[in-house]
Amino acid sequence: MYFTRPQVLIIGNYCNTSINLFWDAKIQLFLLLQFCRVQTNKLFCNFS
Questions:
Q1: Rounded to whole angstroms, what are the CA distances from 46 to 4, 21, 37, 39, 41?
Q2: How far is 30 from 33, CA to CA, in rounded Å?
Q3: Threshold 0.85, pTM exceeds
Q4: What top-level branch of life does the organism fall under (predicted)?
Q5: DSSP 8-state assignment for residue 1
């Protein structure tokens, strides 16, 4: 398959954007899990 240069750039930008959004979501999920873990530990330490 051959693409003209503008098509390649558009496809490349779309892929980069998708990957960045995917990573942002993964990082935010990770941070949320870390935050929940810390909060849970605090609660656990307070109760025990």
A1: 63, 37, 14, 11, 8
A2: 5
A3: no
A4: Eukaryota
A5: -
